[in-house]
Amino acid sequence: MSVGVSILAHRDMPRVAQLATALVEAECPVVVHIDGATPQADFDWLRARLARFKSILFSPRVRGAWGQFSLVQAQMGAAELLLSRYPELEHICQLSGDSLPTRPIHEFKQFLASKPEVDFIESVTAGAAHWIKGGLEHERFTLYFPFNWKAHRRLFDLGVALQRRLGTRRKLPDGMIPHIGSQWWTLSRPTLRAILDDPRRAEYDQFFKRSWIPDESYFQTLARLHSERIESRSLCFARFDYEGKPLVLYDDHLGGLENLDTFFARKIWSGADALYTRLLDQTRPATARQPSKRDAFLRHVALTERRRLEGRRGLMMQARHVGGQARNTRETAVPYVVLQGLESVFEDLPNWLLEQTGQRAMGRIYGPEGAQFAEGAKVGPGGLSSLGVVRDYRPVEFLRNFVWAQRNGVPVFTFDLNDNPKITRAIEIDPNARILHVRSAWLLDLMRENIADPVALRDRAAMAVAREKEHLSHLMRESSPARALVLPLGQVLANPTNILQPLVQLMAPNTTKPLLELPKISWPEGLGQFITKLKNAGVNLTYQDDGLELRGDTQQQRVRLLS
Fold first, then answer.
1. 192 — phi, psi (to 5°)?
2. What is the tens place of the pLDDT at every residue in 193-224?
3. Strands 483-488 and 433-439
4. Which of 242, 234, 254, 250 is nearest to 294 (CA)?
5. Which domain range does residue 463 map to?
6. 363 and 456: one domain?
7. Distance of CA 345 to the CA centre of its chain
8. Which end of the chain has fewer CB atoms at under 10 Å, N or C?
9. In which band, very low, low, confident or very high, does the pLDDT at 10 lie, cut at 50, 70 and 90?
10. Does 347 lie in the same domain as 276?
11. 364 in the same domain as 285
């Protein structure tokens, strides 16, 4: 059996040279097409590198554009050269420059010899091609596509929308049923010759020039008109994500690739030295394929796709600012501590915690002036920006990434109820949140502002009370996912260890030493008179009537917080 190989490439010339060399040394004639946009110097280097091989030819260069007919023209030019120059060829295999054989090439030739009349090309009707990414299954044949999807995306979308509104519908050539599939096919000589010599080829070419991504439909459709027997599958493994981007294969995929039912695979990373060394070695002993390893590899590929869509628990690629609808991003990666009101009670709390636990606590990462990272850093954990405008573009995702970046420790930060309300709710429903809340600590901050206007003072206090009551009503429910320790301001002032000891235990679980030195309490003079003033102004500072203290004693709260 004689097999010829057509290689379409546009970059990584040294790797293309390796692939072509391995094929021709296995007695497979090769035609290489280098994209017209590839620098001439790269093309000249490749020709010089492969000049010693008389069975390696170069087809006329076509400047290819993704999704357009130029790629089909490149395929046809290479195929025509192979068929005309090597009349003994019985099959033509179409590969890319970043492909590799997953099995020895002689096994590939033996396989085709056992099925001389079979065409191996993925070819399914448009309506059945559920693997199509991004839609346009039928419309790629019924609409016009004058604009390139990558180069002129806005014009492309506008053109599609306008044609839909106008009800545009191109007429299909008589007798032709559109099919779709992988562009990496292996066709028999009679079928490929019949496609290239079809008397209606000009009509078909004109039709597909106006179609979208014709390299996935031209040969797939016309093979149905000329082939006597089609196996609708590709002999080259290739997978695409939900955006239609190819899965890149690395060195750690080796075990899975060698156990595939295909003979080639793409898209191989150019830096995958182990893959190139192993898979291009045609002298390696044949090994029995293990279906279990193949299945494990395919499950790994599926998991990769799912991870990209859903992220992993607590992480979803901060650079993409993805929305938080994915299942795995509804909660953070590890437990973290939220301080509410403690910074109003204790002076220099972050440095004290550093001395006690060896860990740094962040300030208000959702403060109005931007994220307050340790020591005033402009870039925080995980490369997060301190700029408020960046943080608030996706504030919930910011929290997820903040926690993820510190997953080897215990993330700690301060949160004020005046900060972003979206984060308030996100914390309340996060089972990893460990919240220490000093009830009514806002009184200290309000007193320090020295607001002279009694009406303004009353309104500010009433607003603070309402906001805190709503927050606590969520936290103190039995069904609340978050764990919270809520202590009244008076109790914290009287005995600071009631809240500081649980905090130290959360940050440093292995620390057993007692708190010998406490941080200084920031207690402004006249606090009692200030509270009386607010009550006389009509502000209701009573919380007991709301049932917030009926859930259990503080000891039970501490146990739940630390468990």
1. -65, -40
2. 999 999 999 999 999 988 888 999 999 999 99
3. parallel
4. 254
5. 337-562
6. yes
7. 42
8. C
9. very high
10. no
11. no
Instruction: Report residue 22 as tokens.
Output: 């391995």
Q: Pick from 236, 233, 226, 178: which is nearest to 199 by CA?
A: 226
Task: Count other C-beta atoms under 10 Å from residue 50's C-beta.
Answer: 20
Q: What are 96's strand-pairing partners?
A: 8
One domain for residues 410 and 278? no
The three-class DSSP label of residue 484 is strand
Calpha distance 272→307 (Å, rounded): 22
Order the strands of the 91-96 sheet from edge to edge: 56-58, 30-34, 3-9, 91-96, 186-188, 119-120, 230-231
Give residue 253's identity as a one-letter amino acid code.
H
Instruction: Assess whether 278 and 359 both reside in one domain.
Output: no
Residue 493 neighbours by CB under 8 Å, 6+ apart: 345, 521, 523
Q: pLDDT grade, residue 102 (50/70/90)? A: very high
- 122 within a domain of the structure (yes/no): yes
In-domain check, residue 273:
yes
Q: Closest Cα partner for 318 from 214, 218, 402?
A: 402
Do residue 167 and residue 230 come from a single domain?
Answer: yes
200, 272: one domain: yes
* CATH value at residue 271: 3.90.550
3-state secondary structure labels for all residues of 10-47: CCCHHHHHHHHHHHHHCCCCEEEEECCCCCHHHHHHHH
Cα–Cα distance for residue pair 138/140, rounded to 1 Å: 5
Q: What is the pTM of this model?
A: 0.65
Per-residue DSSP letter, 409: S
Q: How far apart are CA 222 and CA 176, in angstroms?
A: 8
Q: pLDDT digits over 45-64, tens only?
A: 999 999 999 999 999 999 98
